[in-house]
From TrEMBL:
Domain GST C-terminal positions: 87-209
Sequence ranges assigned to domain GST N-terminal in this UniProt record: 5-83
InterPro entries, sorted: Glutathione-S-Trfase_C-like (IPR010987), Glutathione-S-Trfase_C_sf (IPR036282), Glutathione_S-Trfase (IPR040079), Glutathione_S-Trfase_N (IPR004045), GST_Omega/HSP26 (IPR050983), Thioredoxin-like_sf (IPR036249)
Official protein name in the record: Glutathione S-transferase
Keywords, alphabetical: Transferase
Organism: Thiothrix caldifontis
GO cellular component, one term: cytoplasm
GO molecular function: transferase activity
UniProt cross-references to Gene3D superfamilies, sorted A to Z: 1.20.1050.10, Glutaredoxin
Signal peptide positions on this chain: none
PROSITE patterns registered for this protein in UniProt: GST_CTER (PS50405), GST_NTER (PS50404)
C-alpha cells in the first residue's frame, strides 16, 4: 500500500478508540473519509469487515484493518511524520502506555454506565488510581507525555481527557489532576487535530449516550 491509498475510517460518533485514529490522521494531514454507523444496528457490510464487530475499522483501498492500536501502527509506518519515538526502547514504553490508556478508557466506560452508586464509585476510584499511576510516568518537561514532542501516545489520551472535561462541565464530576497532567490535558485539547476529531455536536452526542445508558452518573 502507498501513501496514495484511499482511506475510509468506520466509526461510532462517541467511540474514543475511533477518535484516537482520527487524531493521528489529522496530525499527519492524511486525506480520508469518515463513515458513521449506528452501533445498535450495524449494517451487514460492516459485520462482514469487522471480525470483532467493533470500531474503528480502517479500509485501505478496501482492505480492512481493525483494532485501533494496529491502525495507529499502520498509519505511523506509512504516513509521515513518524509519531513514535526513534529508539526501540522508548517506542516499546510508549506502546505499553498506549495499552494502559485502553484500560483507563475501559474504567471510564464502566463508570459512565454503572447502574448504582457502588459500581459508579468503584469505577471512578479505579480510574482515579490509574490516572495517578500515569502521572508518575509523565516527563517533567512540558507539555506532552514525553516532553515537547507530540507522539502517538498523546493521540490516545486526548479522548480520555476530552470526556473528563465534559463530565466536569456538564455533570459536576471532577477527578483531580496534578498540575503536570492538567497542563498535558490542556495542551492536547487545544490542538486542531484534537478539536476536529469529533463531530460538531459531540457534547450533545455524548449526553445522549449517557442518557441512553441511564447510568447512575445522570442521577447523582
Amino acid at each position: 500500500m502507498s501513501q496514495s491509498a484511499k482511506l475510509e475510517l468506520i466509526s461510532f460518533k462517541v467511540c474514543p478508540f475511533v477518535q484516537r485514529s482520527v487524531i493521528a490522521l489529522n496530525a499527519k494531514r492524511v486525506t480520508y473519509t469518515l463513515t458513521h454507523i449506528n452501533p445498535h444496528e450495524p449494517p451487514d457490510w460492516f459485520k462482514a469487515i469487522s471480525p470483532l464487530g467493533k470500531v474503528p475499522v480502517l479500509l485501505v483501498d478496501g482492505t480492512p484493518l481493525f483494532e485501533s492500536a494496529v491502525i495507529l501502527e499502520y498509519l505511523d509506518e506509512v504516513y509521515p511524520p513518524a509519531l513514535h519515538p526513534a529508539t526501540p526502547l522508548e517506542r516499546a514504553q510508549h506502546r505499553a502506555w498506549i495499552e494502559f490508556c485502553s484500560e483507563l478508557l475501559g474504567r471510564q466506560f464502566r463508570m459512565l454506565t454503572a447502574k448504582d452508586e457502588t459500581g459508579f464509585n468503584e469505577a471512578r476510584d479505579a480510574l482515579q488510581q490509574g490516572l495517578q499511576r500515569l502521572d508518575t510516568m509523565l516527563s517533567p518537561e512540558l507539555p506532552y507525555f514525553a516532553g515537547q514532542a507530540f507522539h502517538l501516545v498523546d493521540c490516545v489520551y486526548a479522548p480520555l481527557f476530552m470526556r473528563l472535561i465534559l463530565l466536569k462541565q456538564e455533570y459536576g464530576l471532577e477527578l483531580p489532576l496534578s498540575k503536570r497532567m492538567q497542563a498535558w490535558s490542556d495542551a492536547l485539547l487545544a490542538l486542531d487535530a484534537v478539536k476536529t476529531s469529533v463531530v460538531d455536536d459531540f457534547s450533545t452526542v455524548f449526553a445522549n449516550f449517557l442518557a441512553a445508558n441511564d447510568g447512575y452518573i445522570i442521577k447523582r
